[in-house]
Amino acid sequence: MSFTLARFTLARSAVRHSRVRSEAAAPAKNNGLLISTPKQKKFTSTAIPTAQNKASEELLVVVGGGAAGVYGAIRAKTLAPNLNVVIIEKGRPLSKVKISGGGRCNVTNGHCVDTMVLAENYPRGHRELKGAFFNTHGPADTMSWFADQGVELKTEDDGRVFPVSNSSSTIIDCLMSELTRLGVSLQTGKAVVTASSTDGGKFLLGVENRTFSCPEYVEADYLLIASGNSKQGYSLASQLGHSIVDPVPSLFTFKIEDPQLRDLSGITFPKVKATLKIENARRNIPQLTQACWNLILDFAPDVHIEDLKSIVTQHKNKFAKHKLSNSYPSEFGLVKRFWIYLLGRQDLHGDTLWASISKNSLISLAHMLKNCNFYVTGKSQYKDEFVTAGGVPLSEVSPSLSPSPFLPFFFTFIGSVILCLAFVKISLNTMESKIQSRLFFAGEVLNVDGITGGFNFQNAWSGGYIAGTSIDGPDEEAVGDVGRPN
Ligand SMILES: Cc1cc2nc3c(=O)[nH]c(=O)nc-3n(C[C@H](O)[C@H](O)[C@H](O)COP(=O)(O)OP(=O)(O)OC[C@H]3O[C@@H](n4cnc5c(N)ncnc54)[C@H](O)[C@@H]3O)c2cc1C
């Protein structure tokens, strides 16, 4: 098996799931939720209605307090202040934001201005995400949004965007304080386990609490499922009539027993060809756990081995008096820490001068750059992978046709509807289910996966934003004089 990665990242095999600093936006009060036990059949409000939610009985429930759910809730509440918005999160909110990017949170990617180019970074979704999806809220919009909230961001050479603080807590604190400011209720430690639609076009949700065995029932006017790669989320989508593309790990880590790699965590490579050789694998073994995996990395996939040898030799001649650790060919985009690691694997000391390197050592170095071997002892287990492909198919979301500007021209002069359809763009533009109205999806629950570099969070921000924009909320004339911002 051989595949080329646009970017290859070294990650720690074991990621510690640290506590989220600010856990809930608002106290976990029952902000307008209508709840009953199954036997009661009659709904009672256990909340003390605030002045705001007295005006409106409409409720948006967001399943999942990850990037997509929180961003979607913020957008919906910003546009419809009279809508009751409740996020139900079974674990800790924004827990993946916390651990992402080695704890720095790679918020988005700043190198893809053209949305067509941006969409190419999504193996699943590239066709549907170009057009309206990223035009409505792309990386530049995400960066502006965080900047407007006072979060300073920086774009690194490879396009990855991080908070200047180099801490994901900055992003979490920003999102949590927006939830609080807007009055979004965040209920943690509760999982939405069942969902059905009612005759009145609402959603009846079964919510399980850690402490109570009996589920509570909530009736929602709008439902945003932003449950990431959780099986429960897929189940909710199925219960509401959606099909599920089988989830498979898309971006995951290999376990490699090399203590020195631990210190190299977070290094990325501009272009690497990775070949995974699987030895001792027998056919018909569903899981390759019994096989030996040999990962071979080529850090110069576009350079022939002979050219590589001459690049290294020329470097030696030019920088003969320099130490190996301080001077190395820049052509391969390697960082110093990794270069020193490669030297170590060749038993070469960083203080050695280039002049004293033998011809054999130069050849070995060139081969190491072309065929760097790692013995893989396993892969991260389900739940620990970075990104999952599969989930709700994009074909079941959003009326994904938007008219082309050429439409009137073709109607007038050619009159062919078929030709017009050929120029209609296909793109996600509301995130609403085609099967259930008022049901929305955003983030990883959809069959979208991005390569590393901030593309997965961008999918979550864009999807959440579009869903939040598309959720109408109560008619403002009926509930007061709060205008919808543009
Ligand atoms: C270690 C790691 C590092 C990563 N680094 C990056 C990075 O640097 N850049 C990048 O772009 N992407 C990164 N990713 C991927 C990125 O984190 C995800 O693509 C992104 O978090 C998806 O957002 P989401 O809101 O769709 O899902 P999630 O962030 O997974 O949020 C879903 C939430 O829903 C909750 N939930 C699920 N089911 C239910 C239910 N039934 N009831 C209540 N709550 C429920 C879950 O507990 C979870 O909190 C990383 C992922 C991992 C694991």
TrEMBL record:
It comes from the Eukaryota. Residues 294-387 form the RsdA/BaiN/AoA(So)-like insert domain. The keyword Ion transport does not apply. The chain crosses the membrane at residues 406-428. Residues 60-469 form the RsdA/BaiN/AoA(So)-like Rossmann fold-like domain. InterPro entries: BaiN-like, FAD/NAD-bd_sf, RsdA/BaiN/AoA(So)-like_dom, RsdA/BaiN/AoA(So)_Rossmann. It holds the Pfam family HI0933_like_1st. Keywords: Membrane, Transmembrane, Transmembrane helix. PANTHER family: OS12G0638800 PROTEIN (PTHR42887). This is FAD-dependent oxidoreductase 2 FAD binding domain-containing protein. It comes from Malus domestica (Apple). The lineage of its organism: Eukaryota, Viridiplantae, Streptophyta, Embryophyta, Tracheophyta.
